[in-house]
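Hi support team,

I submitted a single chain yesterday and got back a structure, but I'm not sure I'm reading the token output correctly. Could someone confirm the output below corresponds to the sequence I sent? I've pasted both exactly as they appear in my results page.

Thanks,
R.
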Amino acid sequence: MTQPTNPLPSAVKRMTAKFSAHAALLLAAAAAGLFFGQAALAAVAGEITHLSGTLSTQQADGTKKLLGVKSEVQEGDTLTTEAGTYARVKFVDGGEVVLRPNSQLKIQSYSYNVAKPENDSMVLSMLKGGLRALTGLLGKRSRDKVSFQTATATIGIRGTNFGALLCQNDCNNVPTASGQPPANGLHVDVTAGAIVVSNGAGSVQIGLGQFGFVADPATPPTIVPPGSGVQVTVPSAIGSGIGKDGGSECQI
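Hi R., thanks for writing in. Yes, this is the structure output for that exact sequence:
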């Protein structure tokens, strides 16, 4: 008499195969998560070293935070200073940017690795307000890969210390030699090295001790006399005594 076939072994094999496939997917997902986690860590661009007032950031994923001294900033962050706030950012390569009050700066891209200069990149977008910038190692070895973008023009660096102020009916409190508010547009000054200011209408190199102005995207950048120039100044000591608690962040 023929014994009935027992379906259990084949069913177990199918279940085992499905479990193995599922486990493999989980392992792959975990590996991918680890990879992207490491990539996120590698995206740190710098940290806040000095702060006087309120500084916030909106990260690439939309998360908003208040920042303090020693807070990290990352590629994709948009930094915003409130009224009366000065903030100094030191980047991984040693470059520095000091933001003036009522300013917004987005770190569009930042990549620096001592062993891989071919991957260098630093693109900062000044959306509002003003800043003073000092070139770091990245800008010294790959100056053509560093740029500061505004709605009016793009600033390329030549190993430098420069100031930039974007006036959009919001510069009434900025002092000038004439006593009148600066004209709307982009004002720049150079205290070391040189910059190249460019837009669709033209380009000009501005060197040590010189001032420049760009009225709008359709007007060529020009060098202006020192008496008509606007110099971006910042306090010699920013945020003295601020951030002694380690600069913890808090979610908004």
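A quick pointer for reading it: The domain at 46-228 is CATH 2.60.120.1440 (Jelly Rolls). Let us know if anything else looks off.

Best,
Support desk
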